[in-house]
Amino acid sequence: MKVTGIDCHVLLAPDFSVERTSSAQDSFVVEVHTDAGISGIGETDVNPWIARACIDAPGTHTMGRGLRDLVIGEDPLDPAAIWERVYVGTAMNGRRGALINALGAIDMALWDIAGKAAGVPCHRLLGGAVKDEIVPYASLQPDVSSFEAYRSSLVDWALRARDLGFRAMKLELTFGGPYRHERIEEPDERMGEVIAAVRAVVGPKMAIMVDVQYLWDNPEKAARVIAGWRDFDLFFVETPLRSDDLAGYRRLHEANTGTRIAAGEWLATRFEFEDLMDRGLADVAQPDIGRVGGLTEARRVCDMAAERGRLIVPHVWKTGISIAAAAHLAAATAHCPYIEFLPPAMTGSVLRQELTADELVFHDGVIALPERPGLGIDLDRAALERYKVA
Ligand SMILES: [Mg+2]
Q: Which of 131, 214, 340, 371 has CA 20 to 30 A from 120's CA?
């Protein structure tokens, strides 16, 4: 089998705002076609115009090429070989960041093709299911207009998620977005109030995670605050320090706060996760499957985490395509206890609601294992055309 074509789709939600910290407002979707008549679908979470350029750009150097040139004509049933070919053939263009993020969309589509060609769901090709069901956690989005609105909106969300059957939830304690915590005075103390209010209404059994979106620039301060949250029994605290402050993450680890530290949502390639786990000593690695370089690379990161006794909880804030990829990865990964998931109607994202017909059904706190061949998703062509940017 050979790859014969790659269609790139830049999608944009009409109500997008650059003031929002949400990557559900746009998408970059690829369709990879083959001479066998099988096509695969992939997606990645990065500026979609940049991702398209990484694929479309020509090149004049053996290690400075565009992705399309490198992938056309190759065997789609060997995603790892294509990954290596692209990594070497684009080495001067990045080796990290947008280039690898764009490769992630293509790689995801190749796994979709491989599953469809074999007539099996992708989790079978990823090593086989090691669990009977997938447990999602709900990401709760606050109203940031005032502190009171903030606290009550998260409590309301938490109750709604609990009533829907969720067993785990994550509080976005951003107070207005990354690097904008000055909107609320004394954010460290006020965050504790919010967590306490949520814990009080959902009870002791609910797994609660907290995402502080790179809040602190001082690991000792982060350690003090997180240690003060010990009684809330948090499952993890996400991205307490800036992404590149691996020395800070190590110091935070050594401070023994009693709570797991999670990070890695932006990282590309196993090499960046190696740094996060071996230098930063993060307890939970959070690869976003598109960004890290696709399912090929995500599986390698899962293997590295297993060797080190760490957990995997993938980042997903995109359409049904990326969510399906995360579900297949989680099904085949014993040390991946949760995926990030909300029922489409709760997301407020038209792309999440309309772009795909998903196989995944949330019921009684869990998602049944996907069974359809490949990723198990279908694109809604009308929605694709509706949100496609020329
Ligand atoms: Mg996050």
A: 340
**Ligand 1 centroid vs 81 CA: distance in angstroms?**
31
Q: Ligand 1 centroid vs 292 CA: distance in angstroms?
A: 15
Q: Which CATH number belongs to the domain containing residue 85 in this structure?
A: 3.30.390.10
Taking all residues of the chain, what is their mean pLDDT, rounded to a whole number? 94
Same domain (yes/no): 33, 65: yes
Distance 135 CA to ligand 1 centre (A): 18
Write phi, then psi, for 259 (nearest 5 degrees). Answer: -125, 140
The residue among 299, 266, 337 whose CA lies nearest residue 47 is 266
Burial of 385 (0-12, 13-18, 19+ CB in 10 A): exposed
- Are residues 248 and 359 located together in one domain of the fold? yes
Question: Quick one: tokens of 283?
Answer: 């307890």
Burial of 57 (0-12, 13-18, 19+ CB in 10 A): middle
Q: Are residues 105 and 149 in the same domain?
A: no
**For 133-174, how does the pLDDT look when each residue is reduced to its tens digit (9 = 90+)?**
999 999 988 887 778 888 999 999 999 999 999 999 999 887
The band of 184, judged by pLDDT with boundaries at 50, 70 and 90, is: low
Q: Is the pLDDT of residue 117 over 50?
A: yes
Q: Rounded to the nearest whole angstrom, what is the distance from the C-alpha of residue 188 to the centroid of ligand 1?
A: 18
58 and 140 in a single domain? The answer is no
pLDDT digits over 192-250, tens only? 999 999 999 999 999 999 999 898 989 999 999 999 999 999 999 999 999 999 999 99
Rounded to the nearest angstrom, the distance between the alpha carbon of 72 and the centre of ligand 1 is 34
Domain boundary among 120, 149, 175: 120
Distance 113 CA to ligand 1 centre (A): 30
